[in-house]
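Sample intake sheet
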Amino acid sequence: MFHFSYSRIHQFIDNNSNNYIDFLDGKSIEEREIDSLLVQPGDTLKVLPGTKISADGIVTWGSSYVNESMVTGESDPVLKEVNASVIGGTINLHGALHIKATKVGSDTVLSQIISMVETAQMSKAPIQKFADYVSIWVIVVDLQVLHELLS
């Protein structure tokens, strides 16, 4: 169960590449493709339709619908326009967006969700610990009763 959940979640943050845009005095001077692992806070990324957004950020240009269902559970795509926040790992559906990265790597919303799931799967709930304790004593009492009945 742990491996299945862990691998299913990690498929959302698989490495992909984005178009990185350099700006000088508010004008685009260079656009190049970079690996999502190289994205830094403050970088401006061009996210094309059908691609994953590789970092949490703010839309600085463009308008599009984004599928956030894997993070929020909302089945309808969400409209993203200038100044709207986006979540890394979600999918841009229609238009191109320029996004200024605000959180990358382990600071992203998706990475924090993964961390919480891993922690939850590795620990027992307090009620489970109590149930384990009680079940041990029930077995001990049952064995004593059975011993008395058979003697």
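Comment: Confidence is low (pLDDT under 50) at residues 1-6. The CA atoms of residues 7 and 113 lie 13 Å apart.
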